[in-house]
C-alpha cells in the first residue's frame, strides 16, 4: 500500500510510540527542572489500546515503530507490548530507544518478544560527568546494558550522544572509540531547543560543522555517505571504516524528508517535535471508534500536515529556549520527555 503524503509529499511511515512520560534520569538537555507535571496514570493507555491505535497507523502504511518514553523500560512488562507489535506483519522495523539503566536485565525478554533494534543514549564515559549531566548515578549499568544489547542485537545497536559544549564535548573521540570497540554505531546529536530544554542556548551547541572539523583533526579525512534515507542521521566513514552519524536538527534541519510522528503514552498524536497542539486519539478509541474511523482521522490530518518546526526555528534571530518552565507546566505533553524525543 502506498503511504499517504502530507503537504510536502512526506509519507506517513515512521511512528514513535511513548509508553511512559516517566524517567529514571534527569538529563540536562531534556529534564533540567526539579519538578515536573506528569500524565495522570488513568490517562496512560494500556498496551492493548496503544496497539489498537498503532493498527490504525499500519492501515495507512506505517511500517516502522520505535518505542520510546520517558524511559520505556520503566513500564512494567514492556515485553508484552513488544510481543503484541512484533506479531503485526505490517511492522517491518520495531525498535526501542532507552537510557540503558535497566537494559541488561530486560534485554533477553525484549529480544525474545521480537524487538529488532535498540538505541541507547550514552553521553559520557565519565562517572562524574554522568552525575553532572543526569543528576543520577548508574553509568556502569548503562555500559552493562550496551554490552548486553551488542551481544543480543549484533550490528543493530546504535548509541546516541547529545553533545553539549563544556559538558561532554571533550569526549567526542573517546565515545567513538568505545562504540568502535563494540561494533555499535555512534550518532552525535546537536543539542536541541525543544520543549523541556529550558537551559538551551546556541553557545552550548556544538554544530555539525564543528563536530566534523574536530573529528577530522584527529582522524583525518571523513567520507560522507550520501544515502537516500529519511533517517535523521547523516552517516560518515573514517579511513579505517568506522561509521558514525550526526543528527544536526539545530543547525542543519532535515524536515524536508521527515516521515516521523509521535504518539504520547496517553494517546495524543503530534505531527512534529515542535508542534504545540496534538490530536487526541485516545478519546476516539475509548469513545468506541473503529480502527478504520481512527485511520480516516489520521489520514485527513496527515494530508494537511505542513510542519517543519526545526527549519522555522532556524530563522529565529533571538533564538532561546522554545518554552519556559511556566509554559511547560501548563501541559505535560509540551515536554520532549513526554513525546519521546
Ligand atoms: S522538527 Fe518536526 S518536521 Fe522537522 S524533522 Fe523534527 S519532527 Fe520532523
Task: Describe the structure concisely.
With 341 residues, the chain is of the alpha/beta class. Helix content is 32%, strand content 16%.
Written description of the protein model:
The chain has helices at residues 47-59, 78-86, 103-113, 127-134, 139-152, 172-181, 208-219, 281-286, 291-303, 309-314, 325-328, 336-339, and strands spanning 14-18, 64-68, 93-98, 117-121, 157-163, 185-190, 223-225, 234-237, 243-247, 260-263, 268-270, 279-280. With 341 residues, the protein is α/β, with parallel strands linked by helices. The chain has one domain (14-339): Aldolase class I (TIM Barrel, Alpha-Beta Barrel). The chain binds iron/sulfur cluster. Iron/sulfur cluster is lined by residues 253-255, 258, 260, 272-274, 307-310.
N- to C-terminal distance: 28 Å
Classify the secondary structure makeup into a structural class. alpha/beta
Q: CATH topology, which one?
A: TIM Barrel
Summarize the helix and strand pattern as letters: EHEHEHEHHEHEHEEEEEEHHHHH
CATH architecture group name: Alpha-Beta Barrel
Q: Write down the overall mean pLDDT.
A: 96
The ligands found in this model are: iron/sulfur cluster
Radius of gyration over all CA atoms, rounded? 19 Å
Assign a percent range to the helix content. Answer: 25-40%
Give a count of the beta strands, DSSP E runs of length 2 or more: 12
The overall number of domains is 1
Assembly state of the chains shown: single chain
The CATH class label is: Alpha Beta
Major pleated sheet: 12 strands, mixed
